[in-house]
RNase H type-1 domain-containing protein
Amino acid sequence: MFNFLKDFLLDRSFQLNNFKFNCSGVLKHEHAITPPWVMELHSNTDLSQHIKSETMDYTFRNLTLSLLEDYQDYIKFYTDGSKTEAGVGASPYIGIPGNETADTYAKRAITSPEASLVQICSLGDIKGVLQSLTLQQWQHRWTSSLTKLNVIKPSINPWPTLTTKRRHEVIVNRLRIGHTWLTHNFLMRHEDPTQCTTCGEIITVEHVLLHCRKYADTKTSLNIPDHLYEILGPDLKNFNNTLMFLQQTKLYNLI
Ligand SMILES: [Zn+2]
């Protein structure tokens, strides 16, 4: 899987331009020219004295309107960032005219055909989009690649760990990649692939788990599914049944 991903990332077709993604609108982080400690910022934190859970909304509303009267010559911006740990959130400001107006216009802009689309986004936005697009392309490559592995594992999403036993982990991994002692020991003997004495077919993991007549009854009695994806997938019940199948057919030590 690692090599597959490496090839995929090194492939020349994997480029940002392929995503048709416009990076010109990414917001840049720039350092302020003036250090914050020399700026004379006036901050009023009177509202933070009131614990949110112990203060009624209308009390916050009246206190806010009262405060605003002291700042009539100032330009008003409405945000939801004015709170401390114990503090004051945005919801108490319902009923504040400026706040409600800003909220109304924001909602209207989402659906209005007259609203202009501003092509800006943060680095965090791009990271999320690129992650999603990368996974989509990876999934597409995986699905269309000529490998038997994607029959067993159609999705690139990781599977949960089925077992903590080392031997069982080895068994399920060997079955998934189709390389077991049973099916490939002929290579060590420099011989032709081994044929099934019952069916005359070459012994493969697929033949043993799906088609072999010799094991058909055991397979049925243990409710072993008819697809490799189900037999060797992330389902714990199927995994345990497969282990029982291998033990009953005495194939357990041949994997
Ligand atoms: Zn067979």
Summary: Residues 166 and 172 are 10 Å apart (CA to CA). The pocket of zinc ion is lined by residues 196, 198-199, 201, 207, 212-214 (CB under 6 Å). DSSP finds eleven helices and no strands in the chain. The two ends are 21 Å apart (CA to CA).
